[in-house]
Amino acid sequence: MNLIELKAPYLLFVGDAEDLLMAKTAKGVAHWRPERCLGQLRFPEAKADLGIADLDVEEAARQGAKTLIIGLAPIGNSLPASWIDTCIRALEAGMDVASGLHLRLTDVPDIVATAARTGQKVHDVRTPPANLPCGTGLPRQGKRLLTVGTDCCVGKMFTALAIHRAMEQQGVEASFRPTGQTGILIEGYGISVDAVVADFISGSVEVLAPAADNAGHWDIIEGQGSLLHPAYAGVSLGLLHGAQADVLVVCHEAGREQMDLMEGYAVPSLEETIDINLRMARRTNPNARLGGIALNTSRYDQQQALALIAEVQQRFSVPVVDPVRTGVASIVAEVLKDA
């Protein structure tokens, strides 16, 4: 298990992000751990704004920042020179640096040398544990819920965190199981399944969400990608099989027509998404069921969103929510009623 100890408060690096989707890691940490966030560092050309104080490295250090978190999630495996310079300045100012990028900061010689010279730590949270096993597919004690989606970036992590929080508020024994860099930075542990060699993805999820001591314990597992995404379906399938989920919650951004960064590929329907996820989930848990649908209705006003939620709920006869607008209480009630 990747256990990390991030010193707070944090300076969230937004850099030159054009929107909050590119800065989704920073956005997630700021939303779920606001008490740990001192401010954001944005370049002049940045369009994304977390709504917290703008600070440069030196001012953040004077105010007591302890960790610079790289809050962007770009595609690919490159690190701009301006980002490297920012990391070096943070280390020299007395901060640790944490990153969930595919490119490990510990592979950048200048960053490594600066960390060694200053005595500060560099955390690459996307590095998976060594010696992960293959999946076994064997049943294990405890209950598990997995969020799945019609596409990438539709709210799977947010929904899982909201369900976990709601369960805890009801006194249910539950754990959030992060499978991506943002979730790991929020929770302080986890396995970034998209960095795991394919043969070991399902096994890594069995390690992340092991047999529970209490049969009534719930693991709320963060989903990744989509089974119908041409680029990322392999990660989604390994995660689905390893989770052996009792309950699936399907996440969807209402109004999105094209799959994320996949020109020419339409977003699949909820019907197709539900069907394929349940069929694949039942390979390792024959009793897997649909617990609800979480809609991201940010493209709509309140009246339109509530009308859409009601329409989808009537179509599928399961609780339908927008975790931001309505909360997730109805899904939690549905999940727990037969547990």
UniProtKB/TrEMBL annotation:
Q: Signal peptide position in this chain?
A: none
Which Gene3D superfamilies does the record cross-reference, listed alphabetically? NAD(P)-binding Rossmann-like Domain, P-loop containing nucleotide triphosphate hydrolases
InterPro entries, sorted: DgcN-like, DgcN-like_C, DgcN-like_N, P-loop_NTPase
Stretches assigned to the D-glutamate N-acetyltransferase-like N-terminal domain: 56-128
User: One Pfam family name from the record?
Assistant: DUF1611_N
PANTHER family per record: DUF1611 DOMAIN-CONTAINING PROTEIN (PTHR40690:SF1), GLL3100 PROTEIN (PTHR40690)
Write the protein's name: EBNA-1 nuclear protein
